[in-house]
Amino acid sequence: MSVIDVWAQHPTLRLSRHEMFASLRRWTGEPAELTEELPVAATLAAMDAGGVAHTLLSAWHGPEGELISNDEVAAFVAQAPDRLSGVASVDLRRPMAAVRELRRAVRDLGFKALRVVPWLWELPPNDRRYYPLYAECVELGVPFCTQVGHTGPLRTSETGRPVPYLDDVALDFPELTIVAGHIGYPWTEEMVALATKYPHVHIDTSAYTTRRYPPELVRYLRAHGRHKVLFGTNYPMITPEKALAELGSLDLDEETTELFLAGNARRVFGL
User: Fold this and answer.
1) Where residue 29 falls among pLDDT bands split at 50, 70, 90?
2) What is the pTM of this model?
3) Residue 53: half-sphere exposure toward Cβ, Cα within 13 Å
4) Adjacent-strand bridge partners of 68
5) What are the angstrom distances between the C-alpha of 151 and each of 118, 161, 236, 249?
6) Cβ-proximal residues to 241 (8 Å cutoff; 6+ apart), any chain
7) Which of 76, 82, 49 is nearest to 240 (CA)?
8) In order of start, what are the domains of the chain with their CATH numbers?
9) N or C: which end of the chain has fewer CB within 10 A?
10) pLDDT tens, 190-210?
């Protein structure tokens, strides 16, 4: 069965060495800080080890600048276009430049979505600076991807609360497709409620191995949420092989397994 990973990064040295990941290394001991640029072949090998057929690689832009630029992601994708797709990142502080960059990333580089990580900017997703980007996502027909739940890095978790922040966005932009990554713990039930309430709101499981999925998410996935949950890893923080090691423990039927691992991603991201 093919697998699509909807949240991953091919890390640059700039991203790997950023201080925000020190707490993750303290908890898990991985991933190790890079000493040289990682070849794309290493990411493809990790995909192969976990049975992943296609991965969405995200750019990273924060207040201090580009940690993985859109053009770098485009260059990674160009090395394996049948297996990799790009997700854009932009400078949230410059709304018009951000809109133009998103437009370029989708129209010229072929990217499939926009991702903004709220804790990186210390701005929740209902902040006014996001709103021009939401309108442009709707016009371009691409999803808006974001993070929900607590943060691994030692930054505020408040911006990751689904209610009221993402709830406001879904109300204001009913045509916007939203993919909320990292499940939403400890507010998982809020995230499940939003995915149930809004037809275009989805959840991805990045940053969690299958054995750590909260029970309320597993119940949702087995029942009326089978079309709303997408598989993600947050590679290189978690490898696909590790993320899927205990997939059988979820006790999903064949149809739900296919939707979760690939079918929902194909539909949502137009793959």
Assistant:
1) low
2) 0.94
3) 11
4) 60
5) 10, 11, 16, 26
6) 46, 49, 50, 51
7) 49
8) 4-269 (3.20.20.140)
9) N
10) 999 999 999 999 999 999 999
